[in-house]
Amino acid sequence: MRRFLMTQLLVGFVTVLLWNPAFAQTRITWWEHSNPPHNNYSKDLVAAWNKKNPKTPVQYDFFAMTPYFQKLTAALSTRSAADMFTLIDFLLPGFTAKKVLAPIRPEWLGFKDLEDMKKAYIPGALDGYIHEGKLYAIPPIASGFSLFINRKHFKEAGLDADKDYPRTWEDVGRIGKKLVKMRGSRMVREGFDFAMHSSTWTMWYFNTTIRQYGGEVLDASGKKCTSNSEAGVKAMNVRARIAHHYKASDPTVSFGTNALPADDIPKGRVSMFITHAGSVAQFGPKMMKDLKVVPFPQVDPKNPVTPIYGFAMAVNPHISEAKQKIVHAVLKHVVNDSKTWYERTSYPHPDKNFLNLPGMEEARTKNYLGVFVKDISNGRFLQRSDKILELNQAIHRAMERVVLKKEDSKKSLDQACKEIDAALAKK
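^ that's the sequence the OP posted. Answer follows.
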């Protein structure tokens, strides 16, 4: 009997402890896209938070980029998303339209209000995350795309990487043809490659090139596809000419994945590849010694248009206000150190003082920060639409038809516009 009573008392005591607010845990979940250096730094940030805040630990998970965006979209619609999650800028219109994001509370981050918070960032850095006067996400990075070239491959082809790098798309094809490596009738090294592992990457390239020709993916109302315009056909032909006319590209050579989209260049399977600043960290200093980063190719270098994007962290609106406040504290912890963010991920930071931090002047040349910043300054965000994923997929299918099946660019884009208009017509 005594043993029974002692056991019951012990169980009761443990139950009281577990239900006592002083001992209770509030676990925070965080989802993010896959990017190894970025993920590794996020893990370290989470570990540091958890060590200092054992009562509010963060559980961190990441997923391959395109499937992740689809997973996040579905989870938000079913109220099963994480407490905080990283999203990409172009998803914001769809999310705010469905009211599946909680407004960011600047006062919980240490600012007086949103206007005060804007002063801490590069002008315009937060604009892509503001809807109807409210901020819905916090960007820890600002990034664009630039062209990475292999110095050794240039030298093998009798080219000088410092002088002969391409400025225009025609240059890309002409120079890329010289860099191709064949084994019999099979291409084993592409001179240049457009990533085709992801519909998002396909759209970044196409959306930028159509703008270089003066066009847009959608009309001004955002309700009708204009991708099959003259500018769109010219933009699609850029991709086709590099593969079919110059024969500088063969997508079957590529092994790029969602996690490592630029992996072909450090593996020597391609000589020129467009990728983001974060690839510097992914490749590492040893590989970067053989690479050079130059500006994004243009139709007209005197009127440059480049793609820019940003990842930002948002809050689940379906969690309690008390939990949202804890999430804000986590967000503040994550974005607090812009210098370490850059050192660990190679992504420029939207902090207004970022370029004036110690070591940034050297990084402008050593890690090509100057090239990335210049491309970002010429950049435009991806087409805004709450149906952006459907748009991306339609353009990606059009690109595959042109490159892999050699379908006429106009015909393929006509089909893409039928698919896009149908998606836009859905409520």
